Amino acid sequence: MSSSNNNGTVKDFNASDLSDTDLAMKAQEELNMEGEMEEANEVFNSLFSTRRPKDASAGFSSATKSMGKGFLAGAVSLVAQPIAGAQQDGTRGFFKGLATGVASAVALPITGVAVGAYQVARGFGNQNEASKANKQGMQWDDQKRKWYFYYLDKDYEEVDHFFQQVNANTSQGGINGGGAEKKVKDREFYELLGVSTNANSGQIKKAYYKEARKVHPDKCPDDPDAQTKFQKLGQAYQILSDEQSRANYDKNGKSDNQNQDDMMSSIDTTVFFNVMFGSTLVEPYVGELWIASVADLMMKDMAEQGNLSESELAETLTGKAEKNSMESKMKQKMREIKIAMYLRDKVQSFVDGTIAADDFGATIQIEACKVADGSFGTTFLNIIGFQLEVEAEEYIGFQKGLWDGYKAQAKKNASATSNNFKITGAAIKAVSAGRKLYSEVEKTREAGAINAVNESGTKKTKEELDAEQAMHAAQKLEENLPTILELAWAINTRDVKNTLKNSCNKIFSDANATMDQRLKRAHAIRLIGKEFLEIGKLVGASKEEVNSAAAIKARAEVAVMHTMARAQGQEINDEDAEEQIRQHRAMAAKRDSDMNTQTQNL
Description:
With 602 residues, the chain is an all-alpha fold. The chain has 22 helices and 4 strands. A hairpin with a 5-residue loop joins β1 (2-4) and β2 (10-12). The longest helix has 80 residues, at 56-135. The chain starts with a strand and ends with a helix.
C-alpha cells in the first residue's frame, strides 16, 4: 500500500504491518512535514518577492528586491549561524554553525538571483497585457494582482453600503449588544421608558413614542403633573438615545448638572478644528481633517469605555482597535470619494465645453480670493493648489509622454519627502518644548513650596499655590502654542496632500468617462491648482501675525466658544467666527498694551 503527501513525495508501507500506534505516529509525521513545508513556503515568500508583477518595470523592481534580500540574508546567516552554534554547543557548535552559515551565504544569494530572473521574465511576459490595460484606462489591483475597471459611483455605493451595515448593526445590537440585563449605576431613565438596560436604540425610540402618547399634556388635560412627566420622559430619551451620554449615565448615574452633561455629549470636534484651522471654506477640497477624525474617535471611545471595568476594558481593546481601524479606513476612503465626486462635478462644464477655459479660470480666481480672506486661507490655497496641479501634470504627462509624467512624479515625491522632514523636525521641537515646559512647571512648584508666603506675610493656602502654579503653566503653554501649531500644520499638510492624491487618482481612473474626458478633467484640475497657487502667492500671509501665540490663543478661544454654541443647538456662520477672532486679538493686544504701560509707570 502506498501513501502520497501534498508535496509529491510517495512513501510505501503496508498498513497491515503497522499497529494503531504506529499508524497514528505515521500520520503525525505526515502532518508535521506538511506544517514544516507550509512554514518554509511562508518564510520563502516573505524573504523573496514572488507576487505576480503587473509589467516589466514591476518585474525588474521585484527582481531587485529579491536579489537584495538574498544577499542580505546570506550575509546575516554567515554571521549569525556560528554565534548561535557557539551558544548551544561551544566550539563544536561554532564550526557547525560556520558550515551552515557558509552554505546559506552561497545558497540564499543564488536563490535570490534565480527568483529575480524569474520575476523579470514574468514582468516582460505581462507587459503586453499591461500596455493594453493602460490604454483602456484600467487599474491594477495590488491585492488580487489583476487589472480591472474602476467606477467612482460604484465605489461610493460600496462604501456607503458598509456604513449602512455598521449603523444597522449598531441599531440592532445596542451600545453593548444583545443579551441579558447589564449592570448600571442608575435605572431611573430605563424604568421611565419601560425598557431593559440592554435595550438597543430602536427599542428605546419605540418605547419613548409609546410612553409619550400616554403622558402628553394634550392627552391628559386632567393630570396636573402631565407636563412634568412629559419633560422627564423627554430627558430620559435624550440621554439614552445618545451613545456618549448613555455610557456616562450607565457609569455615573444622573448628574447634578444634567444640562451641562447633555451639552458635553453633543460636542462635535469637527466644529472646533474647522474654526481653529479655518477649513470650512475649503471643506469640499479637503473633507474632514484627519486630526479632527482622530479627536472625535478618541472622545467616542472614552465615552463607550467609561462604563467598563478594567477587566472588561482589557477584553474589548483588541476588538475595538480592529473595528476602529476598519471604520477609520472606510471613513478616509469615503472622504476621498466625496472630494473626487465634488471635483468631477466642478469641472464637468469645462469637460463638456459649455464654459471656456478663461471663464472657468475666472470663477476659480473668485473662489480662491474668498478662501484667501480667511486667516489660514493662503496656506490652504498653496497646499491644495500644489497638489492638484502636480497630480494633473503627472496624469497628463504619462498620457502624452513618459518624461513629463516622471518629471511631475519627481516633483511630487520631493514635496512629500520635504514635508516628512518638516513633521519630524516639528515633532522634535514639540517634544523638546514639552520637556522644557514640564521642567519649568516643576521648578515653579518647588519654588512655591519654599516661598509659600503671600504679601501679608501669612502662609499661602494650598488653593493659592495651586492657582499660581496653574497660571504659570498656562502662560508657559501659551508661549509654546506656535510650536504645537507648527506640528499640527505639518500633519495637516501631509494629510491633505495624500487625500487629494488619492481623490485625483479616482477622477482620472473613473471608467464612466472616456479617456478623452479624463484628460479634459486633468486639464481642468490643473487649472484649478494653478489659480489657487497664484492667488495664494499673490495675497500672501503674515506668518508672524497668524502664527503668533496671541493669534493662536484667540482662535482656540473662539473655536471652543463655537463648539459649545453648536452643542447647544445654535447656528453660527464662518464670518462670525473670523470676526470674533479679530475682536479677540484686538482685545488681547489692547490688554497687553495696557499691562505694559502700567509696568512702565511702576
